[in-house]
Amino acid sequence: MRYVQEFRQAAAVQAWVEAIAQRVTRPWTLMEVCGGQTHSIVRYGLDTLLPEGVTLLHGPGCPVCVTPGSVIDQAIAIAQDPQVIICSFGDMVRVPGERQQSLQQARAAGAQVQIVYSPLDAVAIAAKNPDRQVVFLAVGFETTAPATALAIAQAQQQQLTNFSVLLSHVRVAPAMTQLLADPDCRIQGFLAAGHVCTVAGLAEYPAIANRYHVPIAITGFEPVDILQGIYACLDQLESGRSEVVNCYGRAVQEAGNLAAQQWVERVFAIADQDWRSLGTIPEGGLEFQPEFKSFDAHCRFAITGAIALTSVNDCISGLVLQGQKQPCDCPAFGRTCTPEKPLGAPMVSSEGACAAYYRYRRTQVMN
Ligand code: SF4
């Protein structure tokens, strides 16, 4: 397959591994932002190929993992109404909320919960069921927000009054800034998420690189992509530079996808946002523009943002998402927390670090 197989070839991987080994003279710590990158790193054992002292921390770029448990609780509360159909991406239905209940459990108890592959599917369900209220649980980063915006605009055009959105979209760059602002931060360079940059472009990154003196390499998801991003960061660190480098040129243009950005700006505004385990991140999410406020499920169902934590478990996902702990540092990993019976979102999601470690049988810290 073009653009994939050549980025998995052993000879190319070996060449980048050797280039990194020759360039590095001292220990460095990088963070890969995206959970998709984490899965590639763990799947192919890329971190085990790096020189001793070069450490990869796993970042918060897993949309399911950072969706607040209170949002899941709100979706479950809305779903108690028999006139409501909740639509969600597949991974989200298995994630426990603050009350340790999931949408999957709510469905088993009789709630109408449908898995969709696109927000436009939820609009179609609303059009076919005019006597039901259809609520789309909108999660994810800059990659999924344009489709949500498009769905809302389409619902408006179709004059659907039975479609609304429980909004929990998040923005990556503010989360990177928050991590770097922590006085205990160990991150010296970032592998930024290539697919986010495909949509959002690079505009937000130079200020971060300059302010915190960290190189940022826009990085793809295949082994060669990731090693190339690692080399780009380490090369800069070794020479005292902190710039933004696009190592994913086959997909990312500096300006990003302007049409997608325009849809997002038309429907949403940047807002402070709660991230699961990370707290409120300034400008870390989106809110409705006034013109589209009628599609906000919070207005339609009079739900509140705060639902008290009623149960506590051993999950250390907050530390995992901030790169302070590895999944196998968690006492519950593989014991009381498994993909079949997850205690936290990182064990559920296809982009979760705990799921990656479990799937590829990583039982100890490799670095
Ligand atoms: S292994 Fe399970 S309990 Fe531990 S941090 Fe990961 S998701 Fe949470």
UniProtKB/TrEMBL annotation:
GO BP term, example: protein maturation
Keyword field: Iron, Metal-binding
InterPro entries in the record: Hyd_form_HypD (IPR002780), HypD_1 (IPR042243), HypD_2_sf (IPR042244)
One GO MF term attached to the UniProt entry: iron ion binding
Signal peptide (residue range): none
NCBIfam families named in the record: hypD
Family, as annotated: Belongs to the HypD family.
UniProt-recorded name of the protein: Hydrogenase isoenzymes formation protein HypD
Biological source species: Synechococcus sp. (strain ATCC 27144 / PCC 6301 / SAUG 1402/1) (Anacystis nidulans)
Encoding gene per record: hypD
